[in-house]
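User: Quick sanity check before I run a bigger batch. Here is a single chain. Can you write out its predicted 3D structure?
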Amino acid sequence: MDREEFIKRYADGERDFATADLGGTDLSNIDLNDVDFGGADLSGANLSNSIFGLTTNLSGVDLRYANLSRADMQDVNLDLVDLRKANLTEAILNRSQLNGADLRGAVLTGAQLSEVDLVGAKLEGADLSGAILRGADLSGADFSQAIMIGTDLTESDLTNTNFGGADLTDAIVYGSTRPQEEMIENITFPDGTKVKPDWW
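Assistant: Done. Predicted structure follows.
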């Protein structure tokens, strides 16, 4: 399905696009509230600057390699969604549910993720430089080898969070829980060194 067909069907009142093949489709700059994408293929789709809402169903959606830069996805349920290698640069994801989501290799530079739930999420090798994750629940998430330069983790839950090999240079960790020793092997700490500071 191409952009023109999607927009026409949407304008005609259709909201059920469950299991649709929208891989590689340009859906940028569209208000996608109330749309049911359940089980749809959106891999490689351009969803930049689009608006999602509480009523957007993204359960079981394939968003690998999708462009979600600057998309507004606040309060959206993305539990268990496949976002591998997706571009989420400057996306707004505050209060969204990303429990168990697969974000390996995703780009989240400058993204807003305050109060997001990322319990058990996979973020190995993801780039979260400059991202804001204040008050986020990151318990059990895997950030191994992630780039987190200047990432704001203020008051986040880091219980059982794996940061092995991650770069947290200039990261802000005020008020966050301390990760277990075995979860911070070979990481670069906020002061830019490999030596664990006394305060963390």
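The longest helix spans residues 3-11.

User: Great, the batch can go ahead then.
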